[in-house]
Task: structure prediction
Amino acid sequence: MGRVSATNFMLMGNYGLTKKINLLFGLPYVKTKASAGNMAGQKGLQDLSLFVKWVAYEKHIAKGDLKAIATGGYSAPMSNYNADFLPLSIGLHSKNLIVRAMVDYQRNHLFATASYTYIARSNVTIDRNTYYTTEMHYTNEVKMPDASQFNFRAGYRSETIIAEAIFNQWTTLGGFDIPRNGMPFVSNKMNATSIGLNVKYETPVNGLSVIANGSTTLAGRNVGQATGFNAGVFYILDFSKKMKKEKKADGKTEKK
Amino acid sequence: MKKIFLLVTILAVLITGSALFNSCSKSIDEQNMDYPMINPIRVDANAGTWKPILLTTANEFACATPIATTSPDYIVQLNEIKSFQNQITTDERKLVEYWGAGAVLRWNEIMRELVALHNLPPYQNPDGSYPFPSANNPLAYPTFPFANPPYAARAYAYLSAAQYDACVGTYFYKQQFNRSAPFNVDATIQTLLPKSTLPSYPSEDAAVLGASVEILKLMFPGDQDYINQRAEEHKRARLIAGANVRSDLDAGEALGKLIAAKFVTRARGDRAGAAAGNATLWAKLKSDCIARGETPWISQEAPERPPMLPAFGVVRAFLFDSLTLVNSIRPPAPPSTSSQKFKDETEEIYQITKNLTREQLRIANFWADGLRTYTPPGHWNYIAAIDFAQQSFSEARWARNYALLNMAIMDAGIACWDAKNFYYNPRPMQMDPRIKTGIGLPNFPSYISGHSTFSGAAATVLGYIVPGRAQAYADMAKEASVSRMYGAIHFRSDCEIGITTGNKVGAFAVARGHIDGAE
Result:
């Protein structure tokens, strides 16, 4: 099937409730495509995510700022897309509860951030009334394993520029392996370790910023080896002094 | 410090919240754990007089005269049940209920599971050729078998036909020996299942088990440990239930195995072993098609894979001979690949893919029955299981009905593969590369649709067995058929002629049903 590519158009929002608490949302529209073979690409509104981000602790230590940030979130599919057509499905269609603990330290313009995220996932339903994992199941409901993510990033951060190197590790806590020459399934044990670079530049034009990033998979299990490059443009629509909406468009390629 | 406490508290609340979210929603009730226990309205005590499939007579194979229920050996066997019943755990109760739903049903389900496990095509060799699984070395890659739809159709048919003949033999000897069930001999034996009024020697459960084990080992020779383990579990469940003593089971199992051996012999000589064909055959199918002035089917896989089981059409059918197949069942030629009708049918599929609704995609997915599934024949076996379970059939009637269904499905597969390889017609996306599929593309010629032929046959037989549902089965078959157009892998002619061809094959099974003595 050649290479699988996915294009995302993301609507994002950020609302500062207090100085320490932000409300965020994101809603991507995703389009997938295979470069060869006869499998049809998929497209649609994916999952709406809502987050509460709370700066729980702040201290000036050794000429730098230390912050502890807690984030809680929820995401749910916004359309009845077909999750049972991997790798071309636009998502896995589970509802997720997301909890993240993050520590950030910045001194002058240099910073380092580490975070751990736990994603509790609901069961999903598929269009079939039976399916096989490591045994036969007589139901259209699939038990989804939870997942965790460890993320470390470090680099340069100023008012107008962020340049960072990223290490990311996604681990599915359960699930099963794709059999040889079989098709992927929603409840596979999908693991990936990747590294990447990310640059964000806020242009002199008010509200307009550009981003560019690239990443590559170092190790994976039941996932495609993704080497991707994204470029995107954000435009901030300032509805009030506190409320900001951001539009983002980017593209991602993934190698199969 | 206070803030850290607050942070910890919030994290704790969120983690607890996610744990609740999990425990509330993650447990799943699966349909196959809800079947009622066998408790027949008609006990079919005369099933020993029904017409067998391969047995010359119901008593072709001997069954030893049982020991008397007053003998010391029988008392030992009653005590074995009592020791099992001394402390029955919850798991053991579940096991008894699981198997109490019926031997034919559960062994059919085990075959469905093994079909799904083995329904994966071999991965190509480094040189771009494809390896073939070998029954003599089933555990080496590619593992044996590749349980594709024709393979599965044949496996289900042999399983069900052998189970049926095993029941005919068993019910014959039940009447001859008339030995009481253990719970009638000794009132202190508990019965965890509805009490059968039939004599218990030989056990029909064990006969079905013995026949099933032999057929499963033939079809899935790499899974013998699993098959044996399920057989032991089944026998233990019968003893715990107080339904049979050990000698009921031993005699039934031995008889079932002897009867199944006849089916194993037939299977070894039914030409399925050569169904994969060879390079000469593959080239001939293509050149014959070109010689007729038509565009031949070409594999759309990379690298090109030989067609799946192109000689399955010459496998020996259960319900008709090869002359009948060619003269009365083989469908007329499809629209010529150069005709306007063919162009119109191709355009129709392209238009479907362009305007596909979510409901059409759901239908395509529901009936896809592709890799790692029990295949379309398995899907119809599952539909039958759900409906048969509501009919309070006896074990013998379960066997008879599944045998009619699965012989028809296998023979529909033979008729379908005969047409596919006789006409060697291309798939829609070969003729129009704009067409992309929402489900897997099968690697064999298009005309006629396998799903449609299997479904047409199954709906005809099931409509005969459960007349009140005949229209529902016809509707399901139609949906299964049209799902292949929604999936963009078949033309309308493939589907419509597939259904009518399947209906014709199904009628042969119905005709057998009229004369087998079970009506």
Remarks:
- The two ends of chain B are 83 Å apart (CA to CA).
